[in-house]
Design a protein that fits this description.
The protein is an alpha+beta fold and 170 residues long. The protein has a single domain, classed as 3-Layer(aba) Sandwich (Aminopeptidase). It contains 5 helices and 5 strands, in the order βααβββαβαα. The structure holds coenzyme A. The site of coenzyme A has 22 residues, from helix 1, strand 4, helix 3 and helix 4.
Length: 170
């Protein structure tokens, strides 16, 4: 796959396969560690669950991951699109699934060289070539400027955080 948009002058973006699952799990683990809102124990417990979920998603063609490789083949960044199920809607948004960008991570020594921006540009192209009218994501503080530069805007989503005791009863 050739780089679109703000591509760095090196490396390539390729589609991930099941062989990349250990890398994708490691990157997602480090993403949560860097974001800093979950304990290491919670993130480690999540690794196995994510790996199984991502594998099922790859097999079911609803999870598509992308890896940026440096010229020598070292994977320096990754990100993924999950085709998220949607409620029925009228008009142009009437699609059973909508792309959701997730698990964005760049190795610390490869940061600020456009790796994540390149991944985002490729994923936007992937979605637009398939006719999707919109892409969703949730941004970390570190990721927000990259998405804003790529044209992402805040939408009208609202949420209510429920106390833990209510959540446990479900
Ligand atoms: C957020 C994260 C993925 C960004 O990765 P990155 O590869 O460093 O991102 P980029 O290089 O594309 O952009 C970062 C900066 O490099 C600059 N940059 C340097 N060369 C660039 C190029 N050729 N093209 C585009 N941007 C370039 C950008 O201007 C940008 O500047 P900013 O700091 O003002 O935003 C990375 O910091 C990370 O993994 N953080 C921890 C996990 C996380 O928060 N993930 C995001 C979840 S939403």
């Amino acid at each position: 796959m050739r780089g679109a948009g703000p591509a760095p002058a090196w490396g390539r973006v390729r589609r991930a396969t099941e062989r990349d699952l250990p890398l994708l799990v490691r990157h997602r683990h480090r993403m949560f560690s860097d974001i800093g809102r979950r304990t290491e124990r919670e993130i480690t417990a999540h690794d196995r669950v994510y790996r199984a979920w991502a594998r099922r998603g790859m097999r079911g063609r609803r999870f598509f991951a992308f890896v940026v490789e440096a010229p020598q083949g070292r994977a320096v960044g990754s990100g993924a699109i999950w085709l998220q199920p949607q409620q029925p809607r009228p008009g142009r948004l009437a699609r059973p699934t909508m792309p959701y960008i997730m698990s964005m991570y760049t190795e610390p020594d490869a940061r600020s060289r456009g790796v994540a921006s390149w991944l985002v540009a490729e994923m936007v192209r992937w979605a637009s070539e398939r006719g999707y009218p919109r892409i969703f994501l949730h941004a970390s503080a570190m990721g927000r400027p990259i998405y804003q530069r790529a044209g992402f805007e805040n939408g009208n989503e609202m949420r209510l955080e429920l106390p833990d005791r209510v959540r446990r009863r479900r």
